Amino acid sequence: QAQVVESGGGLVQAGGSLRLSCATSGSISSNNAMAWYRQVPGKEIEWVATITRTGTTDYADSVRGRFTISRDNAKNTVPLQMNSLSPEDTAVYYCNAVLILQIGRPTPLLAWGQGTQVTVSS
Fold first, then answer.
1. Cα separation of 44 and 54, whole Å?
2. CA-based end-to-end distance of the chain
3. CA distance 122 to 5
4. Who's near 70: CB < 8 A, 6+ residues apart?
């Protein structure tokens, strides 16, 4: 059974950095594109970044230049390096395997995991 587990969230001051990790298991392989999303309570889940099986990346305008998505196929992890964080980045962050049918709007394939909370104080 395919599964993702997010970790690495926490409390950080504005301007700081965090590194999230997504551990994949089951039927998720290096052939899957992967993406990070985030959600603020009361709002829809928002796409953040995507990485294809070949390592091509794409980012939402709100995080481009500050966040970096990568993948370590040997360890089955998908890190998200977040720099220059602002209070607007406060959210629960989720990762998922995705289909890329439309640029900037990947389609999640799995049920959402528990996510990891990121809180940025001003």
1. 29
2. 40
3. 28
4. 51, 57, 78, 79, 81
